[in-house]
Amino acid sequence: IVESTDEYRFVERLIPPSRVPEPPKHQQYPTPSGWTPPSGTPLTAAAPTVRRFSHAQHSVYTDITHGNQKMTVIRKISGDIWALEQEVKSYLTQVTGKCPPTQVNEVTMSIRVKGYYDTELKAWLTEKGF
């Protein structure tokens, strides 16, 4: 049996990484795809934050319930969820001219907003530095 370490590099390519790599550094932001990195400013413990998921995208999703009820869901919230809900309501009232109904789930740390506002909320979260 001959042991060759030269071919082990092919095996290493098949092994998934043990952690999510840092996003690459770009020369200008936003990138052509519209992505911007989260700000590195430290926040207080009580300040609400919305974490990004593994691909450095915001955790804002659209959902349809009961066949036709359109919802936007903000997940991975930490900190004061009620303060974030008030900020979301005031922002959407400013953008749309009406106050959409919201639902806060403290167990799953998520906020549901009636209607599709995913693009507006993602832009707002990017602007806030999340």
UniProtKB/TrEMBL annotation:
Keywords: Mitochondrion, Ribonucleoprotein, Ribosomal protein. One of its GO terms (cellular component) is mitochondrial large ribosomal subunit. Residues 16-42 are annotated as: Disordered. The keyword Mitochondrion applies. It is found in: Mitochondrion. GO terms for biological process: translation. The keyword Ribosomal protein applies. Residues 30-42 have a biased composition (Low complexity). It comes from the Eukaryota. GO terms for molecular function: structural constituent of ribosome. Belongs to the mitochondrion-specific ribosomal protein mL49 family. This is Large ribosomal subunit protein mL49.
